[in-house]
Amino acid sequence: MNKKRLSAEQRRKNTLSAILAVICVIYVFPVLMVVVNSFKLNTFVKTDTFALPTGEMYAGLDNFIKGMTFGNYPFVKSVLYSVVITLMSAFLILLFTSMAAWYIARVNSLFCKVLYFLCVFSMVIPFQMVMYTLSKTADKLKLNTPWTIPIVYLGFGAGLAIFMFVGFVKSIPLEIEEAAAIDGCGPLRTYFSVVLPMLKPTMISVGILEIMWVWNDYLLPVLVLDINEYRTIPIHIQYLKGSYGTVDLGATMALILLSIIPVIVFYLTCQKHIIKGVAAGAVKG
Fold this sequence. Notes:
Layout (H helix, E strand, L loop, with lengths): L1 H36 L4 H6 L14 H8 L5 H32 L3 H12 L9 H10 L8 H21 L4 H9 L4 H12 L1 H17 L2 H6 L8 H6 L10 H35 L2
Helix pairs in contact: 1-13, 3-13, 4-5, 4-7, 4-10, 5-7, 7-10, 7-13, 8-9, 10-13
């Protein structure tokens, strides 16, 4: 009887493993096609999309060189803007949302409860509902540069960040902060010296998620920034067009590959921190 139960359980595990393997292949296949086609000549990208880049199809590094030198806008400049926007946005989100979450979790008032539910509710509002109003507001407030658009990202990234931070802050014993207050620590010193170090697991998780989001985002920069002067990597790739709107797919695939490599490496390196941070905020909270 035990052997039959064990066999049935093993079959369920094997079936689940097969299903997950198929799902994994479905998700990985598009990325694999980008890698394969980034080394093909443009003609063969259109006609032999799923073939390996062998023989006359192989373009070597020509697609990468062509993509980085195409047009009058330097690709290095786009990389610089993407790095600046991503790092500044992540820094603002982590700093201000963690402080706000600490206040919300510790101050038991109606205002804090309403503020928390508004932040959580903001996660379910589609960006398309507010994008036109947002673009006009950003122009009026001069938030349409790479150095000011992180403020806009702060607004959109606050919902998820505060939700995760509040869950983790509730798990921190209040006695630790009370001891710091007895020792003469004010609110700011208590936060930076006591609370912030304990927020490290969730801080890393939120930072990873926000960095991946901002780095890959196309719609918000294209609506807010002056694309003739400021282009992030996704916008730069979008404008790889020749005469009569023709697109060099080989060069496009090459730049897409260059843009996703940092994200993939970053995610694979830090994925264990994502799991730890989400578990800490969800289970302990």
